[in-house]
Amino acid sequence: MFVSLQEKFPSVVSLPGGCRSEIMSLSHPDCVLFIHWSVEVSREGGVTPKIELLTKIPERVLQLFPSWPVGGASEAFQSLLRILGPEAALESVIRAVSLSSASP
Length: 104
What we know:
It is built from 4 helices and 4 strands; from the N terminus they run αββββααα. The longest helix is centred in the C-terminal third of the chain and has 17 residues, at about 85-100. Strands 1-2-3-4 form a 4-stranded antiparallel β-sheet. The protein has one domain (about 1-100). Helix 3 packs across helix 4. With about 100 residues, the protein is α+β, with helices and mostly antiparallel strands. Strand 2 and strand 3 form a beta hairpin. This is Centromere protein P. It comes from Mola mola.
């Protein structure tokens, strides 16, 4: 799934570990968002995919924009996952990063 998103949004999405990467990086001029994908397998054989959004925002940026609601980004992403599903949630975040990167 990550490779198709990288092909669709090459200016924003990168895969630090190559095409089999468990991490997808979303680049923005002021921060970097990481999407981590893993699969949990229970003893009973149940398989549960897990997708997490991690933020990396420099302290200087947080000081310049103290009203940015970055603290809840991970929780908001989990809500998107429940509402939209994995592909649509990831694409929504990527589009948001793309649009905010393009603004002057």
